[in-house]
Amino acid sequence: MDKEEFINILNDxxxxxxxxxxxYCQDTGNRQDLEQEIVLQLWRSIKKFDGRVKLSTWIYxxxxxxxITFHRNECKQKNKKSGLDASVIALAEHQEDCEDEDKIALLxxxxxxxxxxxxxxxxxxxxxxxxxxxxxIIGITESNVATKIARIKKKLKEQFINH
Length: 163
Fold this sequence. Notes:
mainly alpha, globular
């Protein structure tokens, strides 16, 4: 694959990468570092893409795995900050066709507080990814995806009620 093809793939999937970066990083500098790391990992592993899954599914998997590793390393380097992830507000500002940006921002704040697996599940779910595809990306069964999403949705609903 040549550089131009790769750049086209990145451009076609930039929203996906943007969502992952914004969900896993608190500040602009870290988001940019994570984005660069995701692009680097995609470039290194694009030769391994064999077409058994959709390209977007594969990119999600690489991006989420990179983000989880990045997030864990970031947490090791500095004590975890308390409070909500301010990057969620920036993400909400870029949502298309949203009627109530405050509610979306709050939702992403709550999602930002979830563990890495649950956060990844909800990002994929909110991106209208099918359960089978989520299962392929995350590496769990399709029925487990449905169960986990139902539990997370219940938890998020409770957070909205108690907010």
